[in-house]
Amino acid sequence: MLLAFELSGEHETLPKAEIAGCLRALKIPYTEEPDSAGILVIDADIPTAACNILSTRLGMTHGMHEIIGVCKPEEREILKLIRTTDMTGFMGPGQTFAVRVRGKKPISLERGLEGRAGGALKRRGYEVNLTNPSKTFTLLFTKQTCLFCLLLHSRDKKLFEVRRPHLRPFFSPGVIMPKFARALVNLSGVKAKDVLLDPFCGTGGILIEAGMMDVSLIGIDVQKKMVRGATWNLEFYHLNSDLIVGDASKIALRDNSVDTVVTDLPYGRSSLVSSSFADSSALFPERLYLNALDELHRVLKSRGRMVIVFSSQSLQTLFHRCNFRVLEKHKYRVHKSLDRYITVLEKER
Q1: 307 pairs with which residues across the strands?
Q2: DSSP H helical segments within the chain, as ranges?
Q3: Closest CA to 260 of 306, 216, 226, 293
C-alpha cells in the first residue's frame, strides 16, 4: 500500500521523524519513496487498526492518504486517471463521495478543478455529497506529480487547541505547546502500556500527550507546586500517573525499569536538582547535567530511548560520556533569540 502523509509546515524535519517514530512503535516496516516537498510517501503493509492508531497519534501531520494513482500535474492527465482507475475497492453500493484539492497546485491549473474532477467520477455512476460524503478523494499535489488519493484521516485543527496550556487548571509560563509535546513523545517510539518517564515534568504537558496514547506515566519534579499542579492537570484529562517530588540526580526508581524518557530540560541549570545539591560550590553546572543523565541511563532499559529538549548546544558533548548513542538531532526555533535543540538518544549498555 502506498501512503502519503501531508506534513505540517511548522518544522523542516520533525514531522517526518515523528511518523518514523510511530511506525517504529507499531513495528511496521516501510520503504520511503523519493522526497516531495511537504509530502512523505511510503510503501508499507499497514492494517486498518494500525492506520487508526497512526491517525490518533500524529501531531505534525495534516492528513493521511492512500494513493490510488499517480500522474503529471496536468488537468488532462488528472481527469484521464479518474476516468480510467478501477474504483471497485474504494467505492461501495450506496456510498457517496467528494473530491478535494490538497497541497499547492500548479498555477497552470484553472480554478474549479475539484468540480471537474468530481464530475468525471460522477459520470461513472457515483453520487456526490459535498457536506457528508462516505468517501473523500483528494488530489494531492507535489512539485512533480499529482497523487489521486483516498483520504484516510484529516487532523482536526481544534484537537490540540483545546489542550493549550492556559486552558488547564494549573498554568506556568514557558511550557511547550501540546502539538510539540505530542511530536516529542512520538519521536521516542513509545508503545501503548510502555512506561514513560519525564524527570522534569513541570506542569505535565508531555505526560498529558503520552497519556492520550495509553502509555504508563511517571513524572518527577523538584518543586512541590509543579507536582501538585501537574496532578491537577492530568486529573482534568482523566489520566492516571505516578507523580513524585524528587531530584533528577537521585531518581527513586529501580535500574532498567523505564521504557522511554521524554523531557524538556528547565532553562535554569539550578532547577535540574534540589536546591541543596545545586548550591554546592564544589560542583560545576556541567556536573549537574551529568548526574541527571547518569541517573536516566541507569533507570532506562537496555536500548531504551530518550528524547531530550534543551537550550544549549554544549550539552551535546555530554551524551557520549553518559553512554548514550545519538540517533537524531533537530533544531527548533522558538523565536529570534531562542533556539531549542531536540536529540533522540539510545542507551548503549
Answers
A1: 262, 344
A2: 14-25, 48-57, 75-84, 113-122, 158-161, 178-187, 205-211, 224-236, 275-278, 285-299, 316-321
A3: 306
Using the predicted structure, report yes or no on whether residue 269 has a pLDDT greater than 70. no
Q: Which position has the grid cell 548550591?
A: 279
Which residues neighbour 284 within 8 Å (Cβ) at sequence distance 6 or greater? none
Q: For residue 105, what are the contacts with CB-CB under 8 A and spacing of at least 6?
A: 73, 113, 139, 141, 146
Indicate the pLDDT class of residue 232, thresholds 50, 70 and 90: very high
| CB burial string 231-251: b at 16+ within 10 A, e below | bebbeeeebebebbebbbbeb
Class of domain 2-154: alpha beta
Q: Which SS3 state, helix, strand or coil, does residue 136 take?
A: strand
pTM: 0.90
- State the CATH architecture for 161-347: 3-Layer(aba) Sandwich (3.40)
258: three-class secondary structure by DSSP: strand
Q: Name residue 273's amino acid.
A: V
**C-alpha cell at position 59:** 501531531
How far is the C-alpha of 95 from the C-alpha of 68, rounded, in Å?
18
Domain residue spans of the chain: 2-154, 161-347
